[in-house]
Q: What sequence folds into this?
């Protein structure tokens, strides 16, 4: 099998020596071509030509952002092609959280994950999973256009995206996105965010609107993210085989936030409880509209501030090696 390996050389949990070992291991089993990503969006561009260039698999060594780019490259190049007719997709963890890799049940160690991927390729093991899709409007140079992007595990509007934006700012200075840094940033952002004027409204066909939402977490699988080895699980029923799940928060008081945190940190099987919560499970489509531009993130990648985003479930979208 011909395989395209996309390597993020800036991935935080690998170094050049480890990457060389992994590449040699993959080369021993597949006809491998290696490309290093050089800029934001590069993995998407490289993956988009994989099918036309005859690759049977696209393998990513990187974090969730690089994985998201490559997945979008595969899907947007030939949007009408069934998953079984696209190249297989495999992910090897190279980032700080590696949510997608762990959600697939693969090891969080890049060496162990490479071994698992090679075993799965040899055995022909694959799994077809659903993805999420976000659709919004962007303006550039006075021109408005519709933009869509798939996500593998989560999206968010409001407070959680503000935290992602702040952490990206820290990372731009060369600091690593450690779990303790996320926690500290979350605490700082809580005391400076607008906790009195909720901006978000949930709308979906056939149901009454829900106003007064401060933050909204949209999940395609569970857990939503990790703090080191500890899962953060606001939507424990979400999975790659169902539609999208949502958790919204209608109060941003300290007791409300602490009460939610106690319910979502660690392994969970039951939904969080509270009158301040808005919850959806296995939904095909809904829209989050805002009374003012609010922060928006997708798979942990900050995308800007927007006033309306529509979310859709995309079943059977991608064949992954597991």
A:
């Amino acid at each position: 099998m011909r395989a395209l390996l996309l390597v993020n050389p800036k991935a935080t949990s690998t170094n050049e020596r480890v990457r060389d070992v992994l590449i040699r291991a993959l080369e021993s089993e597949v006809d491998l071509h290696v490309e290093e990503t050089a800029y934001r969006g590069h993995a998407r561009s490289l993956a988009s030509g994989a099918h036309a260039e005859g690759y049977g698999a696209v393998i990513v060594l990187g974090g969730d952002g690089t994985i998201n780019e490559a997945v979008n490259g595969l899907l947007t190049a030939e949007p009408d092609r069934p998953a079984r007719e696209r190249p297989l997709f495999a992910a090897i963890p190279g980032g700080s959280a590696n949510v997608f890799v762990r959600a697939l049940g693969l090891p969080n160690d890049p060496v162990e994950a490479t071994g698992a991927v090679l075993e799965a390729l040899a055995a022909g093991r694959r799994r077809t999973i659903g993805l999420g899709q976000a659709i919004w409007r962007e303006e550039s140079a006075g021109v408005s256009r519709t933009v869509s992007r798939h996500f593998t595990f989560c999206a968010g509007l409001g407070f959680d995206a503000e935290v992602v934006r702040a952490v990206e700012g820290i990372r731009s200075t060369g600091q690593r996105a450690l779990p303790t840094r996320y926690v500290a940033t979350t605490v700082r952002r809580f005391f400076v965010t607008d906790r009195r004027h909720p901006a978000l409204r949930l709308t979906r066909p056939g149901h009454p609107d829900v106003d007064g939402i401060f933050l909204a977490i949209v999940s395609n699988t569970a857990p939503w993210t990790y703090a080191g080895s500890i899962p953060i699980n606001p939507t424990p029923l979400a999975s790659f085989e169902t539609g999208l799940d949502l958790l919204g928060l209608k109060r941003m008081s300290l007791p409300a936030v602490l009460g939610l945190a106690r319910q979502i940190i660690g392994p969970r099987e039951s939904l969080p409880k509270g009158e301040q919560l808005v919850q959806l499970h296995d939904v095909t489509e809904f829209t989050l509209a805002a009374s003012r531009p609010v922060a928006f993130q997708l798979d942990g990648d900050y995308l800007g501030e927007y006033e309306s985003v529509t979310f859709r479930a995309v079943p059977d979208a991608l064949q992954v090696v597991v």
Notes: The chain has two domains: 2-124, 133-316. The two ends are 16 Å apart (CA to CA).
